[in-house]
Amino acid sequence: HICQFKFSVGKFEPNFSIQSKMIKKIVVSLCLLFSFSALAQEGTSSPYSFYGIGDIKFKGTIDTRSMGGVSVFPDSIHLNLQNPAQLASLKLTVFALGGTHANTKSKTETQEAKARRTSFDYLAIGIPVGKLGFGFGLIPYSSVGYKIQTLSDDAIPIYSRYSGIGGVNKVFVGAGYQLTKKINIGADIQYNFGTIETTNLRYQSDIQYGTREINTSEVSGFNANFGATYQTKINSKFSFFSSLTYSPESEVRLGNGRTIDIIQFSGSGSINVIEREEVEGIGDTKIKLPSKLAFGSGFGQVKKWLIGGEVTFLNTSVTSNRFTDIEGASFENATRYSLGGYFIPNFNSYSSYFKRITYRGGLRYENTGLVIQGKSITDTAVNVGFGLPLGG
Fold first, then answer.
1. Which of 25, 52, 200, 231 is the most buried (most CB within 10 A)?
2. What is the C-alpha to C-alpha distance for residues 204 and 69, in angstroms, rounded to an integer?
């Protein structure tokens, strides 16, 4: 279940009070952005998030996700956070805020468990200035969140508990420029930051003390994203669109730390630390963020219907785990296929509210690039969404 809150404001007028109100809104949005960046989210409940820098959570704004991730369509009132060239298509100043509530069921051959997560997805602002469009905001890029408990089959069972929390956020600033009536180009720069913490705990019922290992990583680094779009009229009704984005390979630095605790459980179930040791020699590591190439095209009537497809290639084979002593997992190159579009019965209807609703839908299939015990992890999705007009 996904909800989005978005506010659009018309072009700037040469009036001090209007400009003052606009400045206040931008300042408030900046305060919200930095407030959100301070929150530690548990935005996923997947054991796969243990590897690398977690599950790659961001798959576009609510609009593009509702169409299977297709982001080729230019839009004058919606932000496109995947291709910065689309910023040049904005006609209104746009504030966009997105969040997700997810109910997840995980299954093995013998067990299943359910989890609920509510998370912040993005906060962004887009500002049109003639042929230019500017944008900035915050995106939680990846997320770590899992809790796993196991009990061995030994004569004296060994109890193990694994958990993780944190992730990587991106603060970005970008611009798009209308090169010609048909071609837009754009670029953005992104700063990655965040904290990832994982905990592994083990004990036996006949031994007084157990052990707990805590690993932490402070993430930091920059990367860039470049984009271009093309659109043209085929005839008086139909239009053709195409989109291209490229992100070169980059690195993020991880400041790693590890502690080993000797622990004891109290009668209430809480954990008492008997002795703690900071492990020396873990050191800082670097993880490569894979290069990304995405291209797609679409066709249709802008205010009636559109359908499009997109293919994304990620060089995830360069990715590595945070610590070198993790076994059983590797990475390969990833590919994502998206197909989707929207339909508006009559965007200007006065007689029927349902005719003004934007109906969106899409399909997505991807090989995530993660390989566990020789098996490639894939992800498949069917998406539907509705754009519900409010008031005027």
1. 52
2. 47
Hey, what are 309's tokens?
């497809």
Enumerate residues 6+ apart whose C-beta is below 8 A from 68. Answer: 338, 339, 340, 361, 362, 363, 364, 381, 383
CA distances from 190 to 90, 102, 252 (A): 21, 27, 11
Amino acid letter, residue 237: K
How confident is the model over 127-155, as pLDDT tens digits? 999 999 999 999 998 899 888 888 888 77
Contact indicator for 96, 82 with CB cutoff of 8 Å: no
Look-up: residue for tokens 């949005």? 29
Q: How many CB atoms lie within 10 A of CB 78?
A: 23
Tell me the whole-structure pTM to 2 decimals.
0.83
Neighbours of 365 (CB within 10 A): 14
Q: How far is the C-alpha of 38 from the C-alpha of 218, rounded, in Å?
A: 14
Of the candidates 9, 42, 262, 60, which has an alpha carbon nearest to the alpha carbon of residue 166? 42
Q: For 312-354, what is each residue's pLDDT tens digit?
A: 999 999 988 776 667 788 899 999 999 999 999 998 888 899 9
Torsion of CA 179, 181, 187, 188, to 10 degrees: 130
d(CA 373, CA 242): 38
> How far is the C-alpha of 170 from the C-alpha of 150, rounded, in Å?
34
Give the separation between CA 225 and CA 243, rounded to whole angstroms.
Answer: 13
Quick one: tokens of 4? Answer: 């989005």
Helix (H, G, I), strand (E, B) or coil at 47: helix
